[in-house]
Amino acid sequence: MNFTKELYPYQRVDVDKMKSLPKCLNRNPMGLGKTIEALALCHDLDMQHVLIVCKKSLVGEWFWQTESVLGEGALTPHDNGQYDHRLAGLDLKAPRFVAVNYDLIAIPQYRSILTAVPWDLVIFDEAHRLKNYSSKRTLGAYALTYRVPRALFLTGTPIRNTPLDLFPLFHMMNPREYTSWKRWRDWFCVTEREEIWLKNPYTGKPAPRYITKILPGTKNEEQLAQLLTLYSVYNEKSEVMPQLPPKQYRTIPVELGPEKKQYETMQEEYFALLDSGVEITAQVAVAQMMRLRQICLDPNTLLPEPPRSSTPSNKTLALLDVIDETDGKIVVFTFFERYVQILTQEFDKAGINYRIITGKSKGALKAELDFQNDPAVKVILGTIGAMGEGFTLTSADVVVFTDSFWTPAVIEQCEDRVHGRVDKGLESIKNTLVIDLFCPGTVEEHVRAVKGIKERMITEIESLARVVDRMRKASRRLR
């Protein structure tokens, strides 16, 4: 293997530490080159069998990276869509790199084939996708890491909601030390005991049941910060990328227009349901809130059939105004794929040259390249889930969120599609303007409030971890 990229000094320090930790977490912020560091580790240790587990949309990215950096592409056995026990007929003894998506390791037949291969290293990209300690995907990751000498977890956002998100990663890095998710939860998470009443399946009578509810926040922050420092590599962008200008944020309030009556009617129905005393499941409550969020965008997002052309909603009109007032390229994010379809109709009518990336759209890589390289393509429009990870959209300097999301780390990842990536060879980074189109007095206020609580919790943990990192580096320099 010939390594063709020259590492930055901080990247060389990171790789040296990763070599000293057989199972390690790389939690560098997006844009600092986690992929390049992983490939440098493979090169330095002369890895012969490396399994890469990532999102399906990022499989092609890993193929491109291994080919451009190491001169050999990763084999991707699921490209032909044959999800069966033969793993699409691939001889796993031959390739140096194999890239599969997370869905495969959740299938027992595939997992049994993968675990039979003597991998030197397993890389989990976007490792925060393993935050659910009991999901099929995470159980598959457990099975793989138990059998390999080295594992590397890449994510700039290991904590998505609560410190419990970290348990699966620490369990895989040290399964003897971190064995119980309940013990981890009770030590690091803020919890409360809640009484709920359920019908007894035998008597039919209601009976109390007690559950442990996890609240926003954390306990024993200093110990958690110490663990993060011990098991991971981390650098602050401000320290290693001084040329990176700060992001700027702008919130544009958008009042509900004709859709306000429909919103109020649905909200009243929801409140009446809550007041009725009827037991409501969490799924019903979330679904109702999702509908209210959709109305804030455009009531047509609720239609089961393809959206029809109609008078644009106020949110859509606000977005069109932003696009009209902006000279450069713009990246537009929304949570709802149906709203993407509605916006494409309005963009067509307005004569806006755009590309789209959603979970259902084809040609995502071509859309990315068109947007990056074609001056005529002004807008790229996509869903937070599909376009928020793995794409480089640095030709833009404006990011617009038509609707927010509960998890601040997800929003930050979307912003960083534009804000810059070291591993793409970007040497200078423009200022990034992040615009939030926000409907006051609606469910969007609740979303923002929850996101704010999570942001403060994550900031506190990361601040403590950074202090520990600085102290450790200072101690190393003194020696």
Oligomer: single chain
The CATH topology of the largest domain corresponds to Rossmann fold
Under the CATH scheme, the architecture of the largest domain is: 3-Layer(aba) Sandwich
- The gyration radius over C-alpha positions equals 24 Å
Query: How many distinct beta strands?
Result: 14
**CATH secondary-structure class of the largest domain:** Alpha Beta
Secondary structure class reads alpha/beta
Query: Roughly how many Å apart are the termini?
Result: 35 Å
CATH superfamily of the largest domain: Tandem AAA-ATPase domain
How many domains, in number, for the residues?
A: 2
List low-pLDDT spans: 79-86, 422-428
Helix count? 18
Mean pLDDT: 83
Q: Please outline the major beta sheet.
A: 6 strands, parallel
